[in-house]
Amino acid sequence: MENTQNYNSELNGKIALVTGGTKGIGKAIADRLRDAGASVIVTARNHPGTDLPHHFIATDLTVASETAKVLGEINEKFGTVDILVNNMGGSSSPSGGFSALTDEHWENDIQLNLLAPARIDRAVLPGMLEQKSGVIIHISSITGISPVHESLGAYAVAKAALINYSKSLSKEFTPKGVRVLTVSPGMVKTDTMDAYLHSLAGEAGVSVDEITQNLMNSLGGIPMGRMASPEDVAEFVGYLVSPRASYLTGANYVIDGGTIATV
Ligand SMILES: NC(=O)c1ccc[n+]([C@@H]2O[C@H](COP(=O)([O-])OP(=O)(O)OC[C@H]3O[C@@H](n4cnc5c(N)ncnc54)[C@H](OP(=O)(O)O)[C@@H]3O)[C@@H](O)[C@H]2O)c1
Question: How far apart are CA 163 and CA 114, in angstroms?
Answer without folding.
Answer: 9
